[in-house]
Amino acid sequence: MITIAIANQKGGVGKTTTAINVATAMAAVGWRTLLVDLDPQGNASTGLGVGSAERDYTSYDLLLGESDLAQCSVATKIPNLTLVPGTVDLSGAEIELVSGDHRTQRLRNALADAPHDICFIDCPPSLGLLTLNALGAANSLLVPLQCEFFALEGLSQLLQTVEQVKGRFNPQLVIVGIVLTMYDRRNRLTEQVAEDVRETLGELVFEEVIPRNVRLSEAPSHGLPALLYDHQCAGSRAYMNLARELIGRIGAKETA
Ligand code: ADP
Ligand code: MG
């Protein structure tokens, strides 16, 4: 299984929107897809229409080793897409894990026998133990970057964390790509930042950019990925293209 952590310690940069829509796009083209909601806010779960009543077993139980993956998995409306929901309990996990054994390996162990082709992990906006568990479980990191003035500043801290994770417990971890989000062609600052980011990070940056698109922000309130809510909007098309580009980078699906 290919496991991709979607992380950036900044909030509101498009992690969850990217997680939901790229996961949906992958499921739509036939990949058996798992999405793990590792954010105490549970936005990915809500955005996929999985309400609190359906969150009996969550990524918290998975991390603490209290339930296995099958128990924590919830089917979504999207064929091929399974969710491990997140709840506010996760904020406690951050503390409970501090004293545990293999505290950065919990998620990796829990996902070891997953029957999926690909797994996305939607991280919280911090570089704490939850995100470290995601980076410990992942082969790859996908970083959404909002085109704003301080975008690159936060990134260097994230890249430093990646180096530490590689050195300490997950040498295989690679950055699969950086995606520019909330891109606004009419805004000169956006263009300037995008240019700077591409100059600094080169081919790490996906060619596809995600436009600022109101349909993307409306979809979660309907409990639907944008790709189902309005599959023709600019945001949905961008996420389909991003998924295509992602497949180009990770390679074709392994056939079992
Ligand atoms: P994060 O998970 O990094 O905190 P979200 O994906 O939740 O970020 O996005 C933050 C807010 O911005 C949400 O309200 C979301 O609906 C909105 N949003 C995200 N991406 C876009 C976009 N490309 N265009 C418009 N709104 C967006
Ligand atoms: Mg989020």
UniProtKB/TrEMBL annotation:
This is Chromosome partitioning protein ParA. InterPro entries: AAA_dom (IPR025669), DNA_Partitioning_ATPase (IPR050678), P-loop_NTPase (IPR027417). Residues 3-175 form the AAA domain. Involved in chromosome partition. Localize to both poles of the predivisional cell following completion of DNA replication.
